[in-house]
Amino acid sequence: MPVTRRQIVGRGLAGRCPNCGGHTLFAAGARFTIHERCANCGLGFNRGEGFFLGPLVINYTVTVIVFIIPVILLNVHGVISTKAAIVATGGGALLIPILLYRRSWSWWLMTYFYFLPQKLSGNVDVQHEGGEE
Ligand SMILES: [Zn+2]
Q1: Number of other residues whose CB lies within 10 A of the CB of residue 67
Q2: pLDDT beyond 80 at 127
Q3: CA of residue 78 to ligand 1 center, whole Å
Q4: How many whole angstroms from 24 Cα to the centroid of ligand 1?
Q5: How far is the CA of 114 from the centre of ligand 1 (A)?
Q6: What is the CA(19)–ligand 1 centre distance, in A?
Q7: What is d(CA 36, CA 25) in angstroms, rounded to the nearest whole number?
Q8: Per-residue pLDDT tens over the stretch 32-72
Q9: pTM
């Protein structure tokens, strides 16, 4: 049964393996260490050198757009003081990436496999069969 893009998005938003939907991205006790492979289906989560930069970019982008820019705008429009803005942006820049770390990996895997669904092991056989028709 092929994995659809809709399933990939749903599993990505739920923090699950994009291939089988298992809760297998991170070990139960390990907050920041992603598994090399899915324990359920064997899908490799690290797709090669530099792949880890994807979650970092997502994490940084979300932090800036959702928190840093609004705080700066509040300061520019005089709602909060400059000192409060500096403290808030500094604290947010440290805390938000930690809180989003696991989600950013899930969102990155979702993005990667959304555009390359044929790379999922659940779709390899389907892709091959489709090529023979
Ligand atoms: Zn899996």
Answers
A1: 17
A2: no
A3: 49
A4: 7
A5: 15
A6: 5
A7: 9
A8: 889 999 999 999 998 889 999 999 999 999 999 999 999 99
A9: 0.83
